[in-house]
Known about the structure:
60% helix, elongated, 14 helices
Amino acid sequence: MIELNKFWWMIKKELISLKRHPARLVSIIAFPIIMILLFGYGMGGEMTDLPIVVVSQSHGNLTDLTLDTIKTTETYHVVEVIDDLDEGKRRVDSGEVKAAILLPSDYDDDDSQQKSVTLYLDSSDQMASQILESSTQGIFYRLSNVVASQTSVSTQNASVEPSIVHSLNNFKDDISLNINKIYGNIKYIDFLVPAVLGMTVMFSCMMGMGATIAGERETGELARLFMTPTSVATVIGGKIAAKLLIELVRALILIVMAILLFNVSIKGGIVQTFIVLVIGALCFVSFGIFFSARTSTQEDYAQIVMPFSMPMMFVSGVFYPIETMPWILQKLAYVFPLTYLNDAMRGVMLKGQSLGDVWIDLVILLGFTVLFFIIGVKRFNRDV
């Protein structure tokens, strides 16, 4: 039988206890606000302003019309119009832009020969490449059907004067679009798996360190450990090494299961993929050390870490490209280490890049690792 007076006192006790754990109270209030913002703005955005270059080797009315159409289409953000074909391809290959639209030298010639335009496309970003392919096909379909002066050529944001249309009369059905997907046809599962592997490592490392440090502090195991003449750096370093060994096995299982279950191809090789995951695991283990340095219970640790780990999952491009998000979330993405792990994983698995090609991502992850480790050791509370 419930004693009502004591029942209400128990409720009051639990609410009062939040005063002793301000981080938990802040998390309870902030976490739902953060999540609704991320779902509403981060995952509900439209994919616009995708960076591209236009390689134009021709001059004339059709070229001007094409450039105006591309520049006024919201899908694209035209970084630059250049005339160097190799430079345009290099920018796509290096990841500076998502695509290059190549207008050949005979594009404006007034003859009966069909013009051939090429979309040089980074297909590793599966969702962005689909949008770019669809938009570009639509633009050149409309341009290839320019008719006499009675018809005005229209796009989403602009219309062309009849005098220009009249001068383009001879270009009807005269433009073909060739699409060069430099990494082949990428399925959504191929796009998703590398980031899901990274996300899984992130969660397992961060939550595992909460159980290891905050959990042992809560049960008193950490207190008994510090009764021995052992430094904080030794304790933390040993726990990181042990957790990393566990994550090595987990990472290998993840890679093998992705290949067996989803037939995921790893163009850069299993060994390089494994190394990238290990570096990511090391980073997030240190991240867990950083957050567990002063938490006294596992519940406190979970409440503190969730407002960081969940936004990181949504903002870092795991499920949707970063380009779909508002600009402020795009900037925020590059504060989170998961963004760099995702980029390195997709570079190796989808693009066939080597570790040398993704060295910037790896250096940033190692930088986060050193930073989190140093701060965690300095902040570590051994007074348990």
